[in-house]
Amino acid sequence: MTTPEAEPEQGGAPRPEERLEQAVRAAEQALIEYEIALETFRVEVENFSRLHEQRLGPVYARLEELEAQILEARAARTGDADDLRRADEARARLMPIPGVEELLHGWMDGDGLFPEATAMLTDQAVRPPQRVRPGEEARRLYRELARKAHPDLAQEEAERIRREEFITRVNAAYARGDEAELRELAEEWAAGPVPERRPSRGEELYARLEWLDRRKELLTLLAKELEESAIGAMLRLAPDDPDRLLDEIAEQLATQVHEREAELAGVLGRE
Known about the structure:
Number of helices: 11
Shape: elongated
Largest sheet: 2 strands, antiparallel
Radius of gyration: 28 Å
Helix content: over 70%
Strand content: under 5%
Structural class: mainly alpha
Strand order of the largest sheet: 1-2
């Protein structure tokens, strides 16, 4: 005979700990999805930044040089002190005197000179930045691995460390768009140990929810920085076709170059 006290256990509402566990699992999955989206956007921003610099960097440099030449020609013709000052400032921006940290930044790290720096110093051809845009299969593999192996799913410190080391390798392969390596990593994870999930006490679940909330706040700030950056803002204008956006920007810059060249010719009296 069933007693009244036993009925809530079999068919009643979930216990508070069970509701907390459900809330934690939902928060964990939501955070993982958010991190996946953020990492994908970060890779896209980084790749677009490389393409932008490779293709449009020389055009920007040409515009800055033309602006300096226009100001110098105008100052030479007028002799005005303000014109001379503006011309000197424009030329100084093109020929900065770097400090030690500025000189080394982008040229070397703890392992020595970057290959690009070595090529420049030895008059060799500089290798253009590699174009990397992960394909659909790489994105699918990355999302699957991130969901399965994410460090936020660990309940013990040793397991968290193992997952962090593994997900670092996953992120690196995804940033390179290396589909084959992502497949190998998926096989490696499938063959590895599967940690058992221990039941959590109420206080541990509350602490877990608080940590997830703090983590979400940090990621939100990082996402905002990416979205508000110059490259991030440009990429959001054409997320599905960044090449078209680069074409449009290149056309606009070409028009500006022609206008500045005409202006310089006018100042020099060559019209």
